[in-house]
Amino acid sequence: MKLLKLVPDHTNLDFMRWRNLALILSLLATAASIAFTVYRGLNLGVDFVGGQLIRVTFAQPIDVEQLRTRVDGMHLGEASIQEFGGPKTFQIRLPKPAGNDAATNIAATRVRQLITTDYPGARIDAVETVSGKVSGELAEGSAMAIAFAMLGIAIYIWLRFEWQFGVGALLTLAHDVAMTLGFFAFTRLQVDLNVVAAFLTIVGYSLNDTVVIYDRIRENLRKYRKMAILSLLNLSLNETLARTVVTSLTVLIALGVLMLIGPEVIFGLAIAIFLGVLIGTYSSIYISAPVLVWLGIEPDSFIKAEDKDAPKVQPA
Amino acid sequence: MLEFPRWKVWLIGLVIAAGVLFSIPSLIAGTPLAFSWPKWLPQYRISLGLDLAGGSHLLLEADSADAQKQRLQAMEDSVSTELRRDPRVDIGDISTAGGRLSFLVRNPTQIDAAVERMRTLTRPVALTGNRDWDVQVVDSTRVVLTPTPSGTVKALKDAMSVARDVVRRRIDPGGTKEITVITEGANRILVQVPGVEDPEALKKLIGQTARLEFKLVDLSANPQDVQQGRAPPGSQVLPLADGTGFMAVKRRVMVSGDQLTDAKQSFDQDGRADIDITFNTAGARRFGRVTQENVNKPFAIILDDKILSAPNINEPILGGRAQIMGSFTVQSAHDLAVSLASGKLPVKLNVIEERTVGPDLGKDSIHKGVIASAVSIALVMIFMLVTYGRFGVYANIALVVNAFLILGIMAIFNATLTLPGIAGFILTIGAAVDANVLINERIREEIRRGRRLIDAVETGYHEAFRAIFDANVTHVISAGIMAYFGSGPVRGFAVVLMIGVVTSVFTAVYFTRMLVALWIRRTRPRALHI
What we know:
The structure holds 2 protein chains of 2 kinds.
Chain A: H1 19-39, E1 43-44, H2 46-49, E2 51-57, H3 64-72, E3 80-83, E4 89-94, H4 101-118, E5 123-130, H5 132-160, H6 163-187, E6 190-191, H7 193-223, H8 229-261, H9 267-294, H10 301-309
Parallel strand pairs in A: 1-6
Antiparallel strand pairs in A: 2-4, 2-5, 3-4
Chain B: H1 6-28, H2 33-36, E1 47-48, H3 50-53, E2 55-62, H4 64-84, E3 91-95, E4 101-105, H5 111-121, E5 133-138, E6 142-147, H6 149-171, E7 180-184, E8 188-194, H7 199-207, E9 212-216, H8 223-227, E10 235-239, E11 246-250, E12 255-256, E13 260-267, E14 273-279, H9 281-293, E15 299-303, E16 306-309, E17 321-324, H10 330-341, E18 349-357, H11 359-388, H12 390-412, E19 416-417, H13 419-448, H14 453-485, H15 488-523
Parallel strand pairs in B: 1-19
Antiparallel strand pairs in B: 2-8, 2-18, 3-4, 4-6, 5-6, 7-8, 9-12, 9-15, 10-11, 13-14, 14-17, 15-16
Helix pairs in contact in B: 1-12, 4-5, 4-6, 11-12, 11-13, 12-13, 12-15, 13-14, 13-15, 14-15
């Protein structure tokens, strides 16, 4: 059987030649993403801004405008009604009502009553009611979790490699998270708790490639002490390229399937990770590696460490 | 490389067999096969999260203002009872305004005695050296009791633990359902009930304080004053439960719901729903005495500061049984009976978060999740096979074993599978082969460099392991943080990721290495097709 080789043997692409151009593009894209996120804002779900989300499957196709009029008639605030996964399934979203936490709860009760009385046979699939207090805590907790995860991983890389690698990992992560946020701001896809879980996963997985490449760079730095740093980075990237392509493809295949035929409720999570893996693959080549050059990594960066660790190899 | 001792082979085999054995009960759950699974084999199962099984997740928070109010009221009752005992201290103008309890001692010579007896009602708060109430004398005639901060904290803690038990009894009077009721933080209770038919009824059941009190109606009050909310000294104005007006009742609680042993929904002679209540011995004695002393007077039945009804006492009620009348439906009478029987909530609970998933949506999610998982596994396996041939087959066997191990470990720990957890499972499938990709690519490389076959395999496994280890530690860090910060479903995702990291290192590194070693030893291949 002839085996599939997506990356031919002895591939030798000059990645580093384009590093400055890639950097400019990455910076522009990151800036655009941040600008998008700040000015356009994220479509935050009830998890983070409070309010109600009710998913209903009606027995027959319904008149959406009539449903909207009825919901608006309750004066619970501006309702958004969207189709969700099928022509008879709708998602009704209501803002957090004014008043105390009890008010949020009462509003949920009233919408439920409206649906069961006005639409016999309708099935309420899901109700999410989050009061302002809880949504504030969830938003804060999520932001902290992402920040801690990024820092924690960067510190681990620093301990296992050198400080330049830790900084490189942190910048790579910041780039990946910013780009994914920008995507969510651009598409107006709803950001809920599942998407935060996806961000944390991206933080873990986008670094997967980076770690593999850093490991190879470290190995080559020890092996070829006289090689110029740019050639050494190119060599390391080419040596790991086949693996980068194959692994990214397997993850993308698995996530693509989840996105296309998996449950609708976790579409946001699936697409976020899918995108994160794509971005992470790019950034592990064009951010993680070039950062090392700018931070002045030298072929002897590891020699000192090696000498300290293993004095035995020194000639007597 | 080739030296793979027999005991290691057995150990790895044993781990895999255990994984398969432990995962089967979860896989066949709900199918007819479940009945033929022998009883002597492991029965551990993965539980399904509410987003898959259907059910309600409610987060309740204590209303701190109400907690304070209830505490003051309870203290007011204790103070009145204490000072009415021999030697009696006459007091007046009792008030709970401003978060403090204050009263006037009519005879100034008794003020020291009153203060002394107040001290017996306060208790030290463990470890703080403070008492739960401060007792002070103002203007040498007025005694003021102020709750201390440590006393308030302690009272809330006690109230929350009682509330938790009350909530559990209300949702599940028989104690047979698989529900979760736990306190979270200082003032919250998390309730998870699978398969809820009517979440609104559930919320209503939990939302009711169910403080039942019997008080005498103050007939001396001027009806006009009462409608404007003014009551004579020693009395208070309360609204009627049906919203038709107000009524003045004596402040003093004659009998309270704390002394009930049982409450059941029943019907009166006219076929209207009411509630039969039964008092304990002390309650029965007291109820008998009060009704005896107040024959032909109206007696207000008060639930959560609203008057349900105020029937006339026609004759003394001595048996310790009584009926509560009010404008009930059968359902509302039944719910109230359950609430009364389970005891009153020591603090009002507000629902601050609700997440309910209907059973059909859950089934649909499981169905789609299972299909997506199967398709993902199949596609990833085909891809590995065409890319690495024999080594791809090994990676695929490892992948299947990995799936069983994840499920088996989740079953042993009775972990909860949530909808994001299914995503975590699929993601792990995609990422688990990464270790094999790393190893296989390294072997290819070493062969290109001209190493001998066995050397190439050995170096491949050895050199790839460092990167595999570091990459997996980063996953554990992010998953660990997710598990710490995340709530229910997200935590389920993190748990699957963490288990998957550990099992995938085992299957992708150790297990495939064993397969490769056994193959090389058996066939002594001259060339490697990879």
